[in-house]
Amino acid sequence: MPRRRPSRAAEHAAAAALLLLLGTACGSRLPESDFEHGGRTNAPAPTSGMPIRVGIITSATSPVGGNTFTGPRDGAKAFFDRLDARGGIDGHPVEVRACDDGGSGVGNNTCVHQLIDDDNVVALVATTALDYAGASRVSHARVPDIGGQPIGAAYDTWPHLYGIYGSLAPRNGTPGWDGNLYGGTEVYRYFKREKGARTAAVVSYNQAASAAYARLVERGLKAEGYKVVTEQVDFALPNFRAAAADLKEQGADLVFDAIDTHGNAQLCRAMDEVGAKVTAKVTNVQNWTSTVPDDYKDSPRCRNALWATGSSRNYEDTGNEAVRQFRDATKSLKTHSQWQLEGWAAAMWFTDAAKSCAQTGVTRACVDAFMNRSENYTAGGLLVPVAFERLAEPPKDRRTCLSVARWQDGKGWVSQGDMNSNCFDVPQIPYQP
Asked: Which residues, if any, are the signal sequence (predicted)?
C-alpha cells in the first residue's frame, strides 16, 4: 500500500527558509494572555439551516510577494463554493472566514484569535502561513487544522493539526523526534532508476538557511550513490553564469537548488547561455504552476528540462475525474497550480469529516475525531494515501510514493507515470527544522 512521503515536509520547510532569505521580518509573538480561552474548546454545532463556519489563514500579503501563498486558499474556496451551490453539507452551507496574517507571527496570532475566539470556526482548512506562530493556540483550543501546508514544523509538532501530507511524528509539543524531522531519498532514487542519472549539482547561496538545505540535499544524493557537484553563489551579487559553466564542465545530469524563484530563473538563463544541457532541473510542488512560460521566458532549453515532484495528482491530468472536477470549478482563475489542487483536497477532507458528524452535529470534537482516525486518505484519488501515526521512534526507512511531472512547451506539466506506482523503499535522513 502506498504511504505518505515524509520528505514533503522537508521540501516545504526548505521553501520557507528560502523565502526568508529575502529578508522577511516575521515579527514577535503576542502575549499568551491575549489568547486565553476560558476553558472553551468547542464551537457549538450549527442548528438546522445554519452555516458551518471554517477559517482559512493565508500569508496573502507577506513581504515575499503577492500570490506566493494564496494557491491553497483559492483551491479550498473554489471547493466550498461548488459545495454550497450543490446544497452544502446536509443542507448547511459552508461559510468561509478568510484571514490574511501578512506573513508575520503577530499577524498569525491575530488571525488565530479572530477565527477561533471571535468567529467560532469549527475548523481551519488549508492553512498556508509563513510563520505559524499561533499553532500552539490552535492545538490547545482543540481546533482541527485540516490540510495545511507544512512550511514550518508545526504539523509535526502539535496534536489537532493535520498537514496535507500527514505525519509520523509523536506531535507532543516538540518537533518530530527530539527536535529532528526525517525525509526520504525517493526523489533521488526516482531519477537514478528512471533516467539513469549519476551526477547531480546542488546550487545554493552563501547564506545560512540556503546552505543548510543544500547540505541536506547533498546528503540525500550521496546516500543514493550520486556524485555531487556543489555550486555556491553570492546572495547579494550572484554569478550564476560561472555556476552554470562549472556544472556543465562537471557533466551534471540533474540540478537541484536551494535558491529562490527569481534566482532559479536567473540560473536557468545562465544555463541556456553557456549551453548546459541536463536531464532534469528539479523543482518542488510550490513551483508546480502554469506561470512557467513567464517565469522562465528567457531560457527555453532549461524551461523544457524542468521537472517537479510532489505527493498529489498533477493538476493537468484532466483525464482523471477528480482533477477534472477541480479544473471545471476553477476555470475563472487566471493561473493554476499544484497548491490550488491541494487546497481543494484539504476542503474535501474537511467536508468528509463534517459529513461523518451527521448524528452528533458538526463540532470541533467530532471533526477532530474523524481526522485523528484518518488512514490512507486520498481525497478521491488526488493525494498519495495520507495517514497520521504517532511513532515512538523515527523511521529508518519507508516505502514512499511520489508524483512526477515534466514541463513541455505546448503541453504544460506532463505526468511521468502514476503517483501510486512511483514507489520506493528508501532511507529516512534526519534534519533539524
From this structure: 1-27
Q: Residue 296's closest CA among 414, 409, 410, 411?
A: 409
Model pLDDT for residues 99-134, shown as the tens digit of each residue: 999 999 999 999 999 999 999 999 999 999 999 999
Domain 7-182+321-372, CATH among 3.40.50.2300, 3.40.50.1390, 3.40.50.2000, 3.20.20.140: 3.40.50.2300
CATH class of this structure's domain 184-311+400-431: alpha beta
Q: Please give the Cα distance from 271 to 280 (Å, whole number).
A: 12
Distance CA 8, CA 17 (A): 14
Give the pLDDT confidence of 371-385 residue by residue, as tens digits.
Answer: 999 889 999 999 999
Q: Where are the beta strands (DSSP E) in 145-260?
A: 145-148, 161-163, 181-184, 199-205, 227-233, 254-258
Please tell me the distance from the alpha carbon of residue 283 to that of residue 361, in angstroms, as a whole number.
43
pTM equals 0.91
Domain ranges of the chain: 7-182+321-372, 184-311+400-431
Grid cell of 252 as nine digits: 551534471
CB atoms within 10 A of CB 22: 13
pLDDT at 47 over 90: no
- pLDDT tens string 350-360: 999 999 998 88
